[in-house]
Amino acid sequence: MFLGLPIRFKSNQARAIFLLLISTIMFTGMAICIRKSALNIPIFEVVFFRNFLAVIIMMPILKSKGFGVLKMNNPKLFFIRALFGSIGMIAGFSALTLIPLAQATAISFSTPIFLTIGAVIFLGEVVKVRRIIAIGFGFLGMLVIIQPGVVPISLGIVLAISAALCHSINGIVIKKLTRSESPDSIVAWMVIMLIPITLVPAIISWEWPNLETWCYLWLLALCGTLAHMSLTRAYSLTEITSLQPLEFVKLPLAAVLAWLIFSEVPGVWTWLGGIIIFTSTVYITHREVQVAKSSQPNHGYRESKF
Q1: Which of 8, 163, 181, 296 has a CA 20 to 30 Å removed from the CA of 90?
Q2: How far apart, in whole angstroms, are the C-alpha atoms of residue 139 and residue 49?
Q3: Residue 298, Cβ neighbours under 10 Å: how many?
Q4: What average pLDDT does the chain have?
Q5: Which residue has the higher pLDDT, 281 or 240?
Q6: What is the pTM of this model?
Q7: pLDDT recorded at residue 301
Q8: For residue 283, what are the CA distances in angstroms to 122, 178, 203, 286?
Q9: What pLDDT is recorded for position 94?
């Protein structure tokens, strides 16, 4: 079953692949709705409505599971996650309105690279030579896309990198939260806490959306919610490393839709840099899973939260 539809799969792997592809489509649709919405209202308002409407969409799910899932054992970490989540969301949403969609998508592949570095600094994780080399290749890919010294570094690129950095910090916080909190609580509190945080800057430049913008805002919230639900479910069904190669579907999908809707044609450096970054992140993710499995030989595979 998928969202009430009687879809049958021969294996968990097939179901996970299907869910990941759905997630990829939803995330890309979300990016398009962000840009369309931002044509008529300020970006701060777009961020606010993404979270406010998502809570409305999630209410039936929370009610069916019982509001006890909202229990917090570590409120401080929830607030830190909400803070960096809001900064990352504002930066990422803004970047989507300033640079080509394919370029923003390619830069977003760098999040696991920043996450690995952060885990070394804040969690004391040990990173060996092969992963250091992979991180180096990841940064090389970013340089290929950005081309510093050749073309001016735009505000959009700075914001896209900032968003990837904030999302990596978020990942570290989530890793800590999973030790004491339920997944439902982590997901629900993200959008709930972001409502008051994002409302303040939204009020300053508030403009009421027109009918067309309301449609895009609802689609944005729906796509975002379905994307996270599908992705979480996909990762719970199989190993992350078996799904990582499919993540690259985001780049050609974003490129095609950006060409059809916004007449954007990504340059060769975006493709080359995106491939380099993506390859390094796949290797980093593979190594994280291998390390986790070798450190827990008697417990089988566990879903990686990192």
Answers
A1: 181
A2: 33
A3: 4
A4: 81
A5: 281
A6: 0.79
A7: 36
A8: 21, 24, 43, 5
A9: 95
